[in-house]
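Q: what does this look like with zinc ion bound?
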Amino acid sequence: MFEGGIPIGRVFGIHLRLHYSWFIVFGLITWALAASYFPTEYPYWNRATYWGIGLATSLLFFLSVLVHELAHSVVAQRAGIPIKSITLFIFGGVSQMTKEPGQPAVEFRMALAGPLTSLVIGGIFWGIWAGVRGYSEPLAGLAFWLGWINLVLAGFNLIPGFPLDGGRVLRSILWWRRGDLRSATRTASTAGRVIGYLFIFGGVWWIFTGYWINGLWIAFIGWFLENAAVGSYRQVAIQDILKGHRAWEVMTKDCPIVQPGVTIDQLIHDHILDSGRRCFPVVENSRLVGLITIHDIKKVPPESRAVKTVSEVMTPFEKLKWISPGDDLSDVLNTLTMENVNQLPVIADGNIIGMVARDNLLSFIRIRGELGA
Ligand SMILES: [Zn+2]
């Protein structure tokens, strides 16, 4: 959902990004601090101080959110779960995990690390506030607000609705007690949906009582939470259906093979138009040398399709992601998602023996979902 964004650097091998929606909330918070909160609380500063302190407070707030996310990521990485990226967006931060934690204890520690870090950061800012309040009111004002907002951040994230941190803590406890991840996720995400609806109703109630900006914001957060709870449960249910099944069970075996020297025009007319297939292994001397898809072909302008050959357009073998027939389908889905591709060749002893496409997985999931098997 929040894949895009502007890269801002790398920490512990994790890519940090700012989603476009982040700029909206950054602007709003800076404005609310500089034009409303600080002038109300501290009426004797000058205009430049309001905006300077407002901007600095806002930046330190987002730095706090980033440290909260990094705390989750560091615990995850220590447990052997690589984190690909952290994206800051309108509601905070989101870490992109390459896989879900395998044991309840790992999830428990990972989930708790964020809110605990926010509590510590909040404590540090209040310590700074206590230290500087006799000397500089603007610095004290900045530290006080940051202390308070980090406690709010910790408190909000500890709400026990999946996929919030508190919901993950709840899930890990249920998972540990029941020994069943899917059932634990179902309960924790139901809690997440209930909390989402409470936020929506609370927000709408606020809107009708006149606090429409706060109300709208709360309702929006509730809507986001409800959606995330539904989506996260679906994801776990899908992984649960796929787990224990192997790539060879769903792969397409009769892959039409093409030669590297064939032109794109020939490929389109001889293979694609009548077969309806979207992806072709390229084989030379019975070795797989690459893969060509409709996606690759679309990049070739129609006027050069008569001269361009398959080998010039295909993804060569060295750059190709592939899987083995015995790979677990839940890992296959992760690879498809992480590599952002629609299909993966299945290779055994250097030979292509089939293809697994997203469609294969989808129909596998749909049939088993319908039958409840
Ligand atoms: Zn968190």
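The radius of gyration is 26 Å. The CA atoms of residues 265 and 303 lie 10 Å apart.
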